[in-house]
Every structure is written in C-alpha cells, then in structure tokens.
Amino acid sequence: MNPVLSATVVFVYLAALVFVALRARVARDFDEFSVARRTLPLALIFGSIAATYVGPAFSIGFVGRGFHSGFLFLFVGSAYAVQNILVGLLVAPRLRELKGCFTLGDAFGQKYGRKAQIIAGLISLGICTGFSAVMIKAGGVVLTDTFGLPTWLSVSLIAVITASYTTFGGLRASVITDAFHFALFAILLPVTLLCAMFFHFKGGPAAFSAEAPVATLNGLRSTPAIEIVGLTVAFLLGETLIPPYANLALASRTSRVSKCGFITAGIFSILWFAVMTATGIMARCIVPSDTPEDHVLLELVRSLMPIGGYSLLLVALISIVLSSLDSLLNAGAVVFTEDIVKPLTALSDRTALLVGRRATIVIATVAAVCVPAVPSIIGGLLICYTVWASAILPAAIIGLWLKNPRPLAGVLSMGVGTLVAIIAIAIVSTPDFETKTRVTIIPALGAALAAYLIGHRFGKIKAGA
Amino acid sequence: MQFQTVIVTVILILVVMAALLVIASGVWVAAALLRAIARPRTDPQEDAANQR
User: Fewest C-beta atoms under 10 Å: which of A86, A98, A120, A240?
Assistant: First the structure.
C-alpha cells in the first residue's frame, strides 16, 4: 500500500472532521452539552442512532459472519431491528414526554426515587466506559494494522481525537460528527458490495447466487440452536436504551421525532445487515477461504479497490469507530453529572457543564487504560450487553409503563440483575468464552425479572406519588 | 431447481435494493448535516437580549 496516498486520504478526512466539529461549535450550557437544547431534527437523530449502533461488530463482524454463515446473521440481526422499532413505538415517546429528563437515570429518579437514580447512573457509567474501551480497542486495531503504529499510540490517538471534540461540543458535536461519519460509511461500504457484485471478474450475480444458499446452510448446520436463541436475545435486548440512545430520545425536537428516529433506524438496520452479510457472501468468491473472520472485509477491499479506494475504506472504518465512541463518551459524562453528582450536591449550570467536560476526559482516559483487559471486540460487547440488559431493562421498561412503580422493585431488579450477570460471566470465562457468553444473558435477565416481581409484590409506593 | 433460481434472483434484487437504499440514507443524512452546519446558531437568551 502506498503510505503517502494513505496518509493523504487520512489527513483530508481528519481535516474535514475538524471542520465539521468546529462548525458544531462549543456547548455553552449543560442543556446544550447534554441534550442539544432538545432541537435535533429527524435526519440527525436517525443518523446518530444508526452511526452509534453500526460499530466494528455490525460492519467488520457481520461481513465475517456472512462469509462463514451466509444470511443466518441477517435473520438473527433482525431481532435488533425489532428492538429499535419497539423502542420507537413504545418507549422513546414516553421517555421524551417526561419533564426535566436529561438521562435514563432521571427517568429512574422520577419513577423509583433518588437511590434508584444513583444506582442506574453508576451502572450506566460502567457500561459507557466498558463500551468505550471496546471501541477504542477496535479503532486501535485498525490504526495498528494499517500504519504499523505501536498499540499504545493507536489507542491514545483514537481516545484523544474523539474526547477533544466531544468535550467541547457535547451532544451537538457528537450528533453532527456522527452524521458526517454515517454519510461516509453508508455510501462507501455498499459501493464496495456493488463493485464486487457487478465489476469483478470472479464475482458477479451468478457467483453470489451459487454461494448464498451454500453459506447459509453451512451456517445453520454449524450453529447450535441454543446459541441462535442466545444471540437473538442479545440482539433483541443487549443495546436497548443504552445511555447514548436514551440521550438521543430525550434530545429529539418532539416525541414524534423521537419515535420516528428509532423506527427508521430499526428499518435501516435490516438494510445494513443485508448489505454486510451479502458482502461477506460475495467475498467467498474473491478472498481465500481460510481468511480470519475479522479480516474478510479488509482482504476483500484490498483485492477489489485501487490503493486510494482501500485508504478510503480505512477512513470509513475509523469513522465507524469514532461515531460510536463519541456518543458513548458524551452519554457517560452526562450520566455522571446528572445521575451521580447532581443528586448528591447542588450544581450551578456552569459547574455542571465543567463537570461534564472533565468527566468526558476522565472516561476516555479510563477506557483507554482498560483496553488491554478487553478479551476481544465481540467478547467485550457481549459482556456489556449481558450486564446492561439484565441490570436496567426490566426496571426501565416496566417503570415507564406502570403508573406507580415500587422503588424496591427497581433497586432489587438492578442489584440482582447486575450481580447475576457478573457471576454468570465470571463462570463462563473459559477458552470457549465468546460462545458461552452468548447464553448468559438468559438466566441473568430471568433473575432480574423475578427480583422485580418480588420487589413489586412487597415494596411500598414512592412517597409523594 | 427453477424454484431455487427464482428465490436466489429475488434475494439478489433485494440485496441490490438494500445497498441503494443505504446509499440514499447516507445522502439524506449528508444533506441534513450540510443544512445544520450552514445555519448560524440561534440562542434564545441572546435573541431575547438583542430584542430588548
């Protein structure tokens, strides 16, 4: 690969990113830093949700899965679309209608009391930091593989670049840069598929037609049913209402925008998974069959594109990582300020903004330091999914629908869900870690639901409700 | 065999349509981005102060 051309493409990309981030401007108060004054239109909400969930797993990972299992992961992934559509129909508008809410923890505070808000805040902060560590690791791998940089330097570059614009611009900068990243990869990656399908001598529609059924049957035969069920549950619940999405639901211009943003993002996920798995199937005709799963996309593009095109794809991959990371850093900072610091001490708006900015830097630093502890990109994501779904979802979803939820139910569900998820993950930390982690979400979620029901049966209604 | 060919052809058409729709989404969001960064930022408090 020509290093000068690659460096030029990356430099032009960084210059464009800086321009866009500067145009997003510095946040002047906490309302702007946390929910962008609740003025975001549908296209930006949609772009930001989609850019956040399309991380390395939903791009590089899905191409690799398509390579080995054909369209199997398109069917499993459709659970993710269902989740987004259900959140859009049932949860996001209700969340948006709550008055004075900046985070999901605020909703917990209104429904279950201050103690529940702080616990939800601590769990959300941990999840944001965990997800951020996974994203920084993924970005570091791309930079190290491409430019041969030492890992510590790649990790630091990713963390510093993202933290810099998120610290000053807050949610608006995150959403605006997400739109920039989304436009880049949503145009570049499907073009890769269309090139492979129509302009490559080993590719073509006939080759695709021959490989699609073979790969899909191969995937169905080699994946146990319990693993498919576990993965479907993880896709259905693992990322539901994680802090960046909750913040976007709250930052929408109206509750209708909030609802439509999630529904369109859900529909888009099906299209995206179709494109990614089909790219993986197409790669079966072009790259060697022993190519490791995470390298299929890179190998495919290396074989298909001229050097400039390959560099552009690298830029798209970096975009995918940064757009997920900036949302997570901003959400973590807002959660820390709103759900952990504010319930314990009164803050002026100016101080809250300062705390939010400093928290962004601290979370990015902690996440970068934790990168060596991340087992793998998919493994790290599965741990976060398991903890989040069990700890937060039962209390969040039931609480938004019940008129008088019991504080004991919320606290018990979060405590038991977190504990069982951590114990289950610790038990399966074996060499077959990733496969087993896919099913730990089921007992952990069951325990959290049971704890909620017990708390609801024996708890008292919140004072003043 | 013919049935399988029809199914695979339909899937192929759907995949191409999906790719075009993803590209269209990218263009839609890019247009919204350009509108957002071109618009001067309004501040309700500053506006109110200016009007006074």
Answer: A98
Nearest CA in chain B to A22: B37
Closest CA to A326 of A125, A158, A120, A183: A158
In angstroms, the CA A460 to CA A315 distance is 54
Q: Is B4 on the interface with A (CB under 8 A)?
A: yes
Q: What is the pLDDT of residues A136-163, one digit of tens each?
A: 988 888 888 777 788 899 999 999 988 9
Residue of chain A nearest B44, judged by CA positions: A37
Contact B12 A209 (CB under 8 A): yes
Separation CA A397–CA A285 (nearest Å): 45
A413 or A241: which leads in pLDDT: A413
Chain B interface, mutation test: which of A19, A52, A182, most B Cβ atoms within 10 Å? A182
B37 to chain A, closest Cα gap in Å = 6
> What is the C-alpha to C-alpha distance for residues A421 and A391, in angstroms, rounded to an integer?
8
pLDDT per position as a tens digit, A282-293: 888 888 888 888
Q: Say what the ipTM of the complex is.
A: 0.83
Mark yes or no for CB contact A274/B37 under 8 Å. Answer: no
pLDDT in tens, B11-36: 889 999 999 999 999 999 999 999 98
CB A136 within 8 A of CB A159: yes
> 3-state DSSP call for residue A252?
strand
Q: Residue A320 has which token pair?
A: 């995918």
Using a pLDDT cut of 90, give the percent of chain A over it. 30
Which of A123-137, A255-269, A271-285, B36-50 has the weakest average pLDDT? B36-50
Query: Is the model more confident about B51 or about A380?
Result: A380
Domains and CATH numbers, chain A: 3-370 (1.20.1730.10), 375-465 (no CATH)
Interior angle at CA A133, CA A389 and CA A395, nearest 5: 20
Q: Which two tokens stand for residue A50?
A: 């989609």
The total of other beta-carbon atoms located within 10 Å of residue A2's CB is: 13
Phi-psi region of B43 (alpha: psi -120 to 50; beta: other; left: phi over 0): beta
Q: Using a cut of 0.90, tell me whether the model's pTM lies above it.
A: no
Rounded distance, CA A386 to CA A417, Å? Answer: 9
Burial environment of residue B49 by CB neighbours within 10 A (0 to 12, 13 to 18, 19 or more): exposed
